[in-house]
Amino acid sequence: MTTETLLAKGLVERIGLEGSMLTHKKTDNGEEFILEEPMKDHTEAIANVINVLTDNNFGVVKSMDDIGAVGHRVVHAGEKYSSSVVIDDKVIAALEECIPLAPLHNPPNLLGIAACMELMPDTPQVGVFDTAFNQTMPPESYIYAIPYDYYLKYGIRRYGFHGTSHQYVSERAADILGVNLADLKLITCHLGNGASVSAIKRGKCIDTSMGFTPLAGLAMGTRSGSIDPAIITFIADHDNLTADEVLNILNKKSGILGISGVSSDFRDLSEAAEKGNGNAADAIEVFCYRVAGYAGRYAAAMNGADAVVFTAGVGENAANIRAKIGGYLGFLGVEIDAEKNGQRGKAIDISGAAAKVRALVIPTNEELMIARDTKELVR
Ligand code: ADP
Questions:
Q1: What gap in Å lies between CA 345 and CA 91, rounded to an integer?
Q2: What architecture is the 179-366 domain classified under in CATH?
């Protein structure tokens, strides 16, 4: 951590399913190790991770005694935590209380924490929450215009997600611009399969496009983003579906996939649009228009902006999407230089000579944020 060097990176997939698989890649020689064997639960998966990290050939540490702490990404901490914390029984109970807010994410996050605690009982565990950075939003951003009792009773409010990424790129943006974060108004666009835009004023999130769940806001790969809520009952009534079935359509069959009928991947979409597929072209336009719409709204919220930041799979790689969004934001003083916009794989200012508001591409690094917070908390 003194040099923030990535030693290895890995992934376990299909835990508890047929075809469990661990992939591990060492950074120094790029050597990849793949383990395909049944892993019935998270404890077995983490045991395999520990084995490979300490393996004579593929390992990167001599023993687990070299590991000072473990950082966990946890999706939902509700209103309980506005920054990362060292995990103890009280934190676990708090995260269990948040399960209704993130039923698909918090349970496996908690299983991972339990597995690490079991296998590394003397090593501190730290929780880093997707919702934490957004906790600075003021009520006018997070209160929905529905009876206030729902907020009090069920915690229904805007929480927002991707906080770790928005925080990381806003800090990097300040570095790149050579300006104190406390003096900046930033519009950060995390555009991946899931996508959100945030307004970052003086280093603090004051609004974000995702809501009570990650379904709100932008049109995404397969998610609808915000729609008129009356559409849900209309479809349910006309197609004889339950509310859950309609929500499933809004989560998995909508977004740019739903509009285009082609793909949820922007590479496929751009290719189809170039070949003349009108629905694919429409899907791209809907996506860019919506991003620009949020950016305009956040410029209003902050009374201006110093820079627009693009990150995540689409934001980092899709020059055509950035150019389109930049086009919509000309009124704000955004101007994107075509040649700079064509470069890939590094943090770069892609603004043209006449730009009044900078446009930056910054590769996100949520793992590094998690590692930094973890180091700070256990030091
Ligand atoms: P998530 O973490 O939300 O799953 P990512 O941030 O990894 O998503 O982004 C994945 C998306 O990035 C892909 O679905 C694809 O649409 C897009 N993407 C990746 N590379 C490119 C590229 N070269 N051009 C356009 N889009 C790309």
A1: 37
A2: 2-Layer Sandwich (3.30)
| Adjacent-strand bridge partners of 201 | 185, 204
Provide the residue ranges of all domains of the chain, joining segments of one domain with +.
8-66, 70-159, 179-366
Cα of 4 from ligand 1 centre, angstroms: 25
pLDDT digits (tens, 9 = 90+) for 284-309: 999 999 999 999 999 999 999 999 99
Class of domain 70-159: alpha beta
Q: In 143-200, which residue ranges form alpha helices assigned H by DSSP? A: 149-154, 163-177
- Say if ligand 1 is within 6 A of residue 82 CB: no
Choice among 88, 122, 130, 244 that is catalytic? 130
Q: Ligand 1, from 13, 193, 367: best to mutate by most atoms within 8 Å of Cβ?
A: 193
Per-residue pLDDT of 207-224, as tens digits, reads 999 999 999 999 999 999
CB 154 within 8 A of CB 226: no
Return the closest-CA partner of residue 170 out of 188, 182, 183: 188
The two three-digit tokens of residue 3, written as one number: 């040099």
Report the percent of the chain where pLDDT is more than 90. 93
Centroid of ligand 1 to alpha carbon of 100 (angstroms): 29
User: Would the CATH topology of 70-159 be identical to that of 179-366?
Assistant: yes
At position 18, the amino acid (one-letter code) is E
Smallest CA-to-CA distance from 275 within 260, 286, 287, 289 is with 260
- Going by C-alpha positions, the residue among 375, 316, 376 that lies closest to residue 350 is 316
